[in-house]
Hints:
By secondary structure, the chain is of the alpha+beta class. Helices cover 28% and strands 28% of the residues.
Amino acid sequence: MKIIDFIVFTGGPRAYAPNRLRKEAKKNNIIFRAYLYKYLNIKLNGAPQNYIFSYKGRELPPAKGVFLRALGEMAEYNPYKYFLIDWFESKSAKVINSASFKKWPSLDKTSQHLVYLKNDIPFINSAVFGSQESATAWANPSRFPFIVKSNVGSCGTEVYKIKSRRALKRLLKPFNKRTVKGLLFQEFLPGGEDLRVIVLNGKVLGAMKRIASKGNYLTNYSRGGSVENYDLTGDASASKIALKVTDTFSLDYCGVDLMRGKDGGWKVLEVNRACQFEGFEKATGVNVAKKVLEFAVG
């Protein structure tokens, strides 16, 4: 069976990252495929090491490099990653972030914070509650405004700035005692800007500053924020934290989001194991797609 140089698994073939990877692969004569999770099938035959992985009815081809994207912690296709990693690594493929997936099968925003605590990584003051009653009792007037976000949201979705107890109750109304556990409460830090640092193979590719649009608190490029290059030359702290986060979570590729705390130091907002890079390429001029292909394929 013909070996594919690079396969990206995705939920959206028209998304920026798969398209950029495809175009860059074509420029560099790299055999590339973008596969949709919905066409994957696994047949388990009950014997050790005996399963068949197929795509659109045909056995998955071997590959040199594999990139698992669009696997949110609650995505319906998330369980596929265990089989994909086993399948391709048994055929000597390099699966990006394989070690991290094995160590942390799920890496939601709340789970990340325990790792930050254990490894002395600075982060924004946060809280998680098991019931609406506990959350509303915590929300005394001195805490407003604060941020409430979904444990598994991405691209700035499901992030809310709460300014009053009424607003909090309105947000929590659709939730019950079980689902409210999927929310992370964080201190609101003014300033309207943060950093996205992308790290690949233990090296910082660069950083972009994300700036919220007027009247907005979300800095995400996908939510209307503007982006510009951020020179890390004179900011060793941001690079140091990003590299420490990357190493701690055993990552080959990731985006580390940082924001200035009230003490002026950088705090980690979150780490993303399959971060988007459209705004980053625009702001920094770094060809992320090419570098990912070079790392995975050689």
